[in-house]
Amino acid sequence: MDFSISQFEYRQRPPVTIPTPEFLELLTEEGIRKMVSDHYDLLSKSEIKHLFPSNEEALNKAKKNSADFFIQICGGPSYYLESRGKPMLAKRHAAGSITPESRIVWLKCYIQVLSKLNLPDDVLQLFWNYLNVFSFWMVNSKENYDVRFVKE
Ligand code: HEM
User: Fold this and answer.
1) Residues with CB under 6 A from ligand 1
2) Largest CA distance in the chain
3) Is residue 150 pLDDT above 80, yes or no?
4) How close is the Cα of 127 to the center of ligand 1, in Å?
5) 17: CA distance to ligand 1 center in Å?
């Protein structure tokens, strides 16, 4: 597995390749929900915890929205579209400041979670490639300011 983190020029939006439906088929919806939940639990203890909800109810909502999105992007039911509408994720992430360094913390938390999944390397690699590139689209600031995205 190659979990390397690519660097891009600030404000660049490199082309993204969508993960394969096999990721969902093999991991199942429940597995994706657990993956997302584990990722949020790591984020809540990380250097970028200030960005995420600290209240349990808001955190659970965040986990649900994100898992709905990942299930949908892997070719599953359109849960996200139905509950939140069009993803427009870069726009949604503009609610707060995400620096290049925050992206790296976010990705490193994913490396910890993905390393524990029992999936074929090629399927996992495509999912990683997606996160690695698309996460750069969310970078919108060179400076951290302390803000929670979700009102609690
Ligand atoms: C660059 C690193 C990233 C950081 C620091 C970050 C941070 C955040 C924060 C603070 C929120 C709002 C709180 C919440 O609902 O969790 C959020 C929401 C979300 N993020 Fe990210 N994110 C990153 C990358 C990504 C990527 C790469 C994806 C998708 C592949 C993604 C998908 C989502 C989704 C679906 C939501 C919920 C949006 C909604 O409210 O409907 N994020 N993210």
Assistant:
1) 48, 51-52, 62, 65-66, 69, 84, 89, 92-93, 96, 98, 102-103, 106, 131, 134-135, 138, 149-150
2) 39
3) no
4) 16
5) 18
Distances (CA, A) of 119 to 24, 25, 95, 140, 148: 11, 11, 34, 32, 34
- At 81, list the tokens: 């579209």
d(CA 106, CA 57): 21
Q: Whose CA is nearest to atom 8 of ligand 1?
A: 93
Supply the DSSP symbol for 18. P
Q: Is the pLDDT of residue 147 over 80?
A: no
Q: Which amino acid is at 76?
A: G
Instruction: Domain 21-137: give its CATH code.
Output: 1.10.490.10
Would you say residue 112 has pLDDT above 70? yes
Give the span between the Cα atoms of 74 and 97, in whole angstroms: 27
